[in-house]
Design brief:
The protein is α+β, with helices and mostly antiparallel strands and about 140 residues long. It is about 25% helix and about 40% strand.
């Protein structure tokens, strides 16, 4: 008898423990990856579909040292009243004026132009956000 270790033919006696562990890790990784992807998709759908009102700033115009006109488009359900917050910033980025605008027309899409009274000359305008008037 010689002292050489005996080896078995490869693949003859099934998978090795390492191969079984690798396969289990691949399956576990796939399941966890699918779960994370599903969670992200659910969050994105919930964030957008759950919103009762949304808006977009179309354009703004600085009318004077104390007024900025803002054109916004509001999308909402016909039976929902929306409140949108618009504001104007001065050249130094400080807040020059802010206004909440109620949109209660019974339409899905409403274009409106509103004026923001400012304490200093506004350099720009932005739509902070829109939500249902009841807070949804």
């Amino acid at each position: 008898m010689s002292g050489a270790p005996q080896t078995v033919p490869e693949g003859r006696y099934g998978r090795s423990a390492d191969a079984r562990a690798d396969r289990r890790l691949k399956i576990l990784g796939g399941v966890l990856g699918a779960a994370v992807l599903g969670f992200v998709a659910w969050g994105a759908i919930d964030a957008t579909a759950g919103s009762q009102a949304s808006g977009e700033l179309i354009r703004f115009k600085v009318v004077s040292d104390h007024e900025v006109q803002v054109h916004i488009e509001v999308r909402k359900k016909t039976d929902v009243d929306a409140v949108c917050t618009v504001r104007s910033l001065a050249a130094d980025k400080s807040e020059a004026g802010i206004r909440d605008v109620r949109v209660d027309e019974p339409e899905n899409r409403v274009d409106t132009v509103v004026s923001i009274r400012t304490t200093t000359r506004g350099a720009n305008a932005e739509l902070v956000g829109c939500q249902a008037a009841d807070g949804r």
